[in-house]
């Protein structure tokens, strides 16, 4: 069970570009996962700056405005792990952080959050919610973070607060995102919706219209190709653990601002020549655990690329110009990570000059290949 301090730390974290591990397969670490215990240390000072007043100040024990069984602090109400079947009543109106995770709530009713106009973050993770009233979020005029993961939703809830910045809705049962689902959410920055059984056809044209996202994750879904109508503002796109089989020429044409692209653990056999030229600012490319038979073409032309994960593919040969440009001063950033282990290529057959634009030889990972 989380302590209130741990809950606050996770809740107030923001999406960020973090340095990748060079030894482990790619995993999303853009922002915290509520299901993980033992994260972080004492950042009370930072949290207090984010929420006005002292969020850690205990309420007097004789105050009776705290819902039964919950733990209340100034602006914070923690009602997790109580086997609740509904949102509790009498939540203090000045609440900014409300934790309802790990309960048995099945429905959000119209007046469940009535009067909570100051609410900043709401966690409903790991409940059994399948029904959401279309006006339940109307009072939440200042809500920034909504964590709705591990429930039984079949659609994205309607009428999300326009103030919302971060939405986590992974591991539900969503198969369709209708046109206009995110309309009016111009402040939205991050959406995490992996672990839903959604196919490419489940995204209606205009589903993401109006969004200016930096971060989007649709991993562990049923995608067979890169979606073509995602926000063109994206800096991070994570589509790992799907069934994508190829990257075609026009697949990346909308996503010119990408810094990080995660396509690991798919079925990719082919990357069409020229397709990577649409993402000239890319810093990290994750293609591990696919079915590639050669290093993708176009890597030497990517001036800012620093990390390439290609381990656990079927690459049998690495040529001298697969990674680095032939001319001097053409690459703005040296590589600090290239992984090739788990491929049927003999490292002693690769010419040393192949990695002439790598900052440190320790950044190159070959390892042994085992069938």
Structure description:
This protein is mostly beta strands and 371 residues long. Helices cover 4% and strands 13% of the residues. It has 2 helices and 18 strands. Strand 1 and strand 2 form a beta hairpin. 44% of the residues are buried. The N terminus is likely disordered. Keywords: Disulfide bond, Extracellular matrix, Glycoprotein, Leucine-rich repeat, Proteoglycan, Repeat, Secreted, Signal. Belongs to the small leucine-rich proteoglycan (SLRP) family. SLRP class I subfamily. It comes from Anabarilius grahami.
What radius of gyration results from the CA coordinates?
23 Å
How many strands, which pairing sense, and closed or not: the largest β-sheet?
Answer: 14 strands, mixed
Question: How many H/I helical runs?
Answer: 2
**Mean pLDDT figure:** 85
Order of helices and strands: HHEEEEEEEEEEEEEEEEEE
Question: In total, how many beta strands?
Answer: 18
Helix content: under 10%
Spatial shape: elongated
Distance between the termini: 42 Å
- How much of the residues is beta strand, in percent? 5-15%
Order of strands side by side in the largest beta sheet? 1-2-3-5-7-8-9-10-11-13-15-16-17-18
User: What structural class do the secondary elements suggest?
Assistant: mainly beta
Low-confidence stretches: 1-7, 12-49, 52-63
Keywords: Disulfide bond, Extracellular matrix, Glycoprotein, Leucine-rich repeat, Proteoglycan, Repeat, Secreted, Signal
Organism: Anabarilius grahami
Protein name: Biglycan
Family: Belongs to the small leucine-rich proteoglycan (SLRP) family. SLRP class I subfamily.
